[in-house]
Write a structure and sequence with these properties.
mainly alpha, 7 helices, about 160 residues, Arc Repressor Mutant, subunit A
Length: about 160
């Protein structure tokens, strides 16, 4: 029985230029670069199995990349499909509550600002979880956002 070969991927000139830029990039995520290279090969009419061997992925992965490109175009390259990845183990709304408490409440131990350990103890989560939430939301409780004006009468001189 003959093996069915997927037709070459229909790619516009603008899309081909953008895929070429992505494939040659040294700063984009590896996932995006590999997908761009695979899609360029698909546009040249190379079979999915051969693309999979060259890119060191499964042929089914190449089929999914092609389908995502047909549906989303260049914007879909490198995107992780919904439902993939590790699910949060935190209850709904806890991240928002941690961010709110960091900025609006003071520690009960008399400190001037929260540390990862004190806030982790309050919410009964790990200190690294607090650090990750602060990083994701650009929260820096140790930074002071006020400005002091000098009392020196010759300051402006």
């Amino acid at each position: 029985m003959p093996v069915a070969i997927a037709p070459s991927l229909s790619v516009s000139v603008e899309q081909r230029v953008e895929l070429g830029r992505m494939a040659a990039s040294s700063v984009l995520p590896h996932r995006q670069v590999v997908q761009a290279k695979a899609l360029l090969l698909a546009a040249d009419g190379i079979a999915n199995e051969q693309i999979a061997r060259r890119c060191e992925v499964e042929s089914d992965t190449v089929r999914r990349w092609r389908a995502r490109f047909i549906e989303h175009g260049v914007d879909g390259v490198g995107r992780i499909a919904k439902g993939r990845g590790r699910k949060s183990s935190l209850p709904e709304g806890m991240v928002a509550e941690i961010v709110r408490a960091t900025g609006q409440e003071k520690p009960t131990d008399g400190g001037t600002h929260w540390t990862t350990r004190t806030l982790a103890a309050r919410f009964k989560v790990g200190k690294d979880t607090i650090a990750k939430i602060w990083s994701d939301h650009d929260v820096k409780p140790w930074q002071v956002s006020t400005f002091k004006v000098s009392n020196d009468p010759h300051f402006e001189d």
